[in-house]
Amino acid sequence: MASTVTEKNIQPYGEFLTDEHHAIREMVRDFATKEIAPKAAEADRDAKFQVENFKKLGQLDLLGLPIGSEYGGAGADYRSYVIAVEEIGRACGSTGLSYAAHVSLGTNPIYKFGTEEQKKKWVPKLCSGEYIGCWALTEPGTGSDAAAQKTTAKREGDHWVLNGTKQFITNATHADVAIIMAMTDQAAGKKGISSFVVEKGTPGFWVSKVEKKLGMRGSPTASLTMEDCKIPAGNIIGAPGEGYKQALATLEGGRLSIGALALGIGQAAFDAAITYAKQREAFGQSIGKFQMIQTFLANMATELSAARLLLYHAAWMKDHGQRVTMEGSQAKLYASEVASRVANWCVQIHGGYGYIEDFPAERFLRDAKLCEIGEGTSEIQRLLIARQLGF
Asked: Residue 3: its pLDDT value, please?
């Protein structure tokens, strides 16, 4: 990832970022450029999860970046975290996705809603990289209707017994702990949903299907099945019936991470387009001299800057204890759609070379699309924004 003129566009951002945030960016970018980016094409081509690099993220305290130091985290703020997601995603969309899912979804719910015993048991291992985490909400046939849970959890003495299947779960194949959403009271509807921690190797719990995907191929996505899966009573997170409320709070923060991931992918596509426009010659000059190419690049630069401001503003609000239901949805919606547009323009600037695997442009386009779907589709984001407007 060669430096481009775009570097100056991501430095100041006024009150949103401090010198510490810029230092974190430099540290993450240095690691991502040297260790993650060189393996990005291989991870995509072979659908191979880069476990070693993931463990190194733990050694750098990045897996626990927004987690309190008393549980093995770095104690940084959410702006630091979205910067890390952005830079990792810029190097490799697949690694960025697994990173965001591990921190926002696989670790944060235990940290935010778990008991002291649960936090001490699982969070330090998740922060260090000893454990990999995942979060299982989606089920076959439910999609965006998160309240339509068919997985059940029934209390039997000092255990809960889980039955059901979860689908499209990031990191599921490698997860040591999974947070499972399940119905504990069918009659109560969404107020009857609870969340549980299920450890790898628990009898009656297994990976039932590994998906083959359009993009983000280096980030494993799979189904998890539970059949009379018995877990200790103490593995419930919070009280019975609090799962749906926890899920909404988790998704609110998680949307910022997907917005950051989209921003990173879009930035990588822009960087590639700038480099190619300078190097490729046609009709006796670099194609960057042509006004049509300049129009593409101008649009890319402008939309990425706007997306970055939306994202950093929402992260700043979250760091100051404010709800970001509206702002988080706006940032995720806009950044994900910008990433797809920028990646598409990147392919167009590359011409025929943008359509073959010798250049990363086609991978950026495939990877970017997921950001319009995961953690709430663009359509769901628009509905959430409309509700905040009073509709």
From this structure: 43
Catalytic positions, please? Answer: 375
Q: What's the CA angle centered on 211, arms 160 and 131, to 5 degrees? A: 50
Sign of the dihedral through C-alpha 14, 20, 25, 30: positive
pLDDT along the chain (391 residues), means of 10: 45 77 96 98 96 96 97 97 98 98 98 98 98 96 81 97 97 98 95 98 97 98 98 98 95 95 98 98 97 98 97 96 96 98 98 97 98 95 97 94
Alpha-carbon distance of 117 to 77, in angstroms, equals 24
Sign of the dihedral defined by the CA atoms of residues 317, 319, 321, 326, in that order: positive
Q: Residue 239 has which token pair? A: 């009280």
Task: Enumerate residues 6+ apart whose C-beta is below 8 A from 80.
Answer: 20, 21, 24, 65, 66, 74
How many angstroms separate the CA atoms of 356 and 134, rounded? 33
**Which residues face 224 on adjacent strands?**
166, 207
Q: Is the torsion defined by CA of 232, 248, 165, 120 positive or negative?
A: negative
Q: Are strands 193-199 and 152-156 parallel, antiparallel or unpaired?
A: unpaired
pLDDT of residue 12: 55
Nearest Cα residue to 65 out of 29, 97, 32, 104: 104
Residue 14: per-residue pLDDT = 65
Q: What are the chain's domains?
A: 5-132 (1.10.540.10), 134-243 (2.40.110.10), 244-388 (1.20.140.10)
Tokens of 379: 């359509």
The pair of three-digit structure tokens given for residue 55, joined into one six-digit string:
């463990």
Q: Which residues pair with 183 in a beta bridge?
A: 152, 193
Pairwise CA distance, residues 156 & 53, whole Å: 41
Q: Based on the number of CB atoms within 10 Å of its own CB, is 382 exposed (0-12), middle (13-18) or buried (19 or more)?
A: middle
